[in-house]
Specification:
Elements lengths: L2 E7 L1 H12 L6 E6 L3 H7 L5 E2 L3 E9 L29 H14 L2 E6 L2 H15 L8 E4 L9 H5 L3 E4 L2 H6 L3 H9 L6 H8 L3 E2 L10 H10 L19 H7 L2 H6 L17 E4 L8 H6 L2 E6 L2 E2 L2
Parallel strand pairs: 1-2, 2-4, 4-5, 5-6, 6-7, 7-8
Antiparallel strand pairs: 3-4, 9-10, 10-11
Length: 306
């Protein structure tokens, strides 16, 4: 890892990270998403997005719904295993609109947790009201696990970025069909369909909910199996990513997703030397080799940190 995203920080936490950076003690880069509170708005919004050497402060984190496992993800139709339960809507639509307008006026990204198809629809429609057309604001939907297929065009029409976590599909696959039923599960964890909308997506680990290693994220995105090699033929392989797509989804595309692609995310002349050396070629290896892939060393700004 050379950069981590920290979703939901308060002013004093961001300033502490900034202090560690200024003192030369921060050995990893941080993309900070702010909690939506007045203290953060009053302090950070007037400054506009900030891109420091090892800290980026350019986004606010919202929550549309809950989680699928606890039946909190907001669905358009009831849970298949809990009739009458549609999940949780965290705030009224008016709240989301207010938060989005504030962020838009400050030039900040809005990154919203949305898992259920209704939770996603609410945010996609809200984003569309504020963004109005294609744009380069790079607002994001975090997770986008269950999206009604007819809503996918919102991602394209309003340049909304899907920010997914591929290990969710291989962790949830044992029980997700119970929550969603035979039909809805077919369009869940649809990373390829999401990728097609804008030609790119972001793929994170969702640590500490899932394992911290991006190598496991890569494996789940390409092979669509868990660490026990199940299921035998992969989970809904029509939505697997190619090795190159999966590699970009954990390198250059996340850098683009935080407006940092001009100085990190790929190995190019003029960019910072944020490098991870592996013992395995991720683009040309067997399933067995990918499972055993290990990090040899890590460099941040050219400094060996691992």
């Amino acid at each position: 890892l050379t950069t981590v995203s920290d979703a939901g920080l308060d002013k004093e936490e961001v300033l502490l990270i900034k202090q560690l950076q200024d003192e030369g003690k921060l050995k990893i880069k941080v993309y900070a998403m702010l909690n939506p509170n007045d203290e953060n708005f009053d302090y950070f919004y007037p400054k506009g997005p900030q891109h420091y050497d090892r800290l980026t402060v350019s986004a606010v984190k919202l929550y549309s719904d809950g989680a699928l496992g606890s039946r909190g993800a907001l669905l358009l139709n009831p849970y298949s295993d809990d009739k009458g339960n549609y999940g949780l809507q965290m705030h009224p639509v008016e709240y989301f609109e207010e938060m989005c307008v504030k962020a838009y006026e400050a030039g900040f990204q809005v990154n919203t947790h949305a898992i259920g198809d209704s939770g996603n629809r609410i945010m996609l429609q809200t984003y569309s009201k504020i963004l109005k057309d294609k744009n380069d604001r790079r607002w994001r939907v975090e997770h986008a696990q269950i999206v009604e297929p007819s809503d996918l065009n919102y991602f394209y029409n309003y340049s909304i970025i899907p920010s997914v976590q591929a290990t969710h599909c291989t962790s949830d696959m044992y029980w997700a069909d119970e929550r969603l039923g035979e039909e809805r599960i077919k369009t869940a964890y649809a990373y390829k369909d999401l990728l097609k909308q804008n030609g790119w997506l972001i793929n994170g680990t969702d640590f500490p909910v899932e394992h911290i290693s991006p190598l496991k994220t890569f494996y789940a995105a390409v092979i669509r199996k868990d660490s026990d090699n199940r299921p035998e033929n992969g989970f809904q392989m029509e939505n697997s990513l190619s090795p190159e797509e999966a590699l970009k989804s954990i390198t250059i595309w996340p850098a683009r997703g935080s407006f940092d692609e001009s100085f990190k995310g790929s190995i190019e002349v003029g960019k910072k030397a944020d490098l991870v050396f592996l013992d395995t070629d991720l683009l040309n290896s067997s399933q067995e080799e990918l499972q055993k892939a290990m990090v040899i060393s890590t460099f941040v700004n050219g400094e060996k940190v691992y």
